[in-house]
């Protein structure tokens, strides 16, 4: 993947490797709008490209799962209170899980499937204002984790985010990254 059109929202240590990036998630970093008190956190390193219209973003992600909410994230963002997030996260239940967060003024937070591995494939697709999150254990068969409507503008930021909301930070690996600028034929299947 060619990352020449990508930018960082926050400077961080990173290197390009395995058709992707390995990026450092500093301590106390996240994208989240607390649904209880409305507090906004939008300080995680986000490696993005501006995209017009529909897309399919995919990556093989992994990390060390040290602290609660440590995650590799695929993020589609219009602004700090309107975005979609697909995470491979160390949950507050002590599991490695596919977690999805949809934010329209305030965030929801939905734990998905738990997996007994430190590596998984994540995919995010957009068709109009419908966003679909899929995951795969083998990079071939993708299973839907979430389907949601978010009223975003046509032009948004799409890319990779490294977070460590409660921990001391760590490296996040995004390999075999692909970004297709096309409409999915079937948004529920993610193809």
Helix fraction? under 10%
Poorly predicted segments:
none
Give the biggest sheet: 8 strands, antiparallel
CATH topology: Jelly Rolls
User: How many individual helices?
Assistant: 0
Query: N-to-C terminal Cα separation, in Å?
Result: 19 Å
Helix vs. strand class:
mainly beta
Helix and strand pattern: EEEEEEEEEEEEEEEEE
The CATH level-2 architecture is identified as: Sandwich
Mean pLDDT score, rounded? 97
Domains, number: 1
Bin the strand percentage.
Answer: over 45%
Radius of gyration: 15 Å
How many beta strands in the DSSP annotation?
A: 17
Description:
The protein is mostly beta strands and 191 residues long. The protein has one domain: Jelly Rolls, CATH 2.60.120. Helices cover 0% and strands 58% of the residues. It has strands spanning 7-8, 14-17, 20-25, 31-33, 40-42, 46-52, 55-62, 71-79, 82-90, 96-104, 106-107, 110-115, 119-127, 130-136, 143-149, 155-163, 170-180. Strands 1, 6, 8, 9, 10, 11, 12 and 16 form an eight-stranded antiparallel sheet that branches. Strands 2-3-17-7-13-14-15 form a seven-stranded antiparallel sheet, with no helix packed on it. Strands 4-5 form a two-stranded antiparallel ribbon. Strand 13 and strand 14 form a beta hairpin. The protein is globular, with a radius of gyration of 15 Å.
């Amino acid at each position: 993947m060619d990352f020449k059109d990508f930018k960082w929202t926050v400077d961080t240590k990173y290197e390009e490797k395995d058709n992707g990036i390995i990026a450092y998630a500093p301590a106390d970093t996240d994208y989240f709008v607390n649904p209880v008190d409305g507090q906004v956190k939008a300080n995680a390193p986000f490696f993005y490209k501006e995209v017009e219209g529909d897309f399919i973003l995919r990556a093989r992600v992994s990390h060390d799962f040290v602290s609660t909410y440590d995650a590799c994230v695929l993020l589609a963002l219009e602004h700090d209170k309107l975005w979609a997030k697909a995470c491979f996260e160390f949950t507050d239940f002590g599991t490695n899980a596919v977690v999805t967060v949809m934010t329209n003024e305030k965030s929801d937070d939905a734990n998905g499937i738990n997996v007994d591995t430190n590596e998984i494939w994540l995919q995010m697709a957009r068709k109009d204002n419908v966003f679909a999150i899929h995951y795969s254990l083998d990079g071939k068969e993708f299973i839907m984790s979430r389907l949601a409507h978010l009223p975003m503008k046509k032009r948004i930021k799409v890319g990779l985010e490294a977070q460590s909301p409660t921990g001391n930070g760590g490296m996040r690996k995004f390999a075999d990254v692909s970004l297709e600028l096309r409409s999915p034929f079937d948004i529920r299947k993610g193809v």
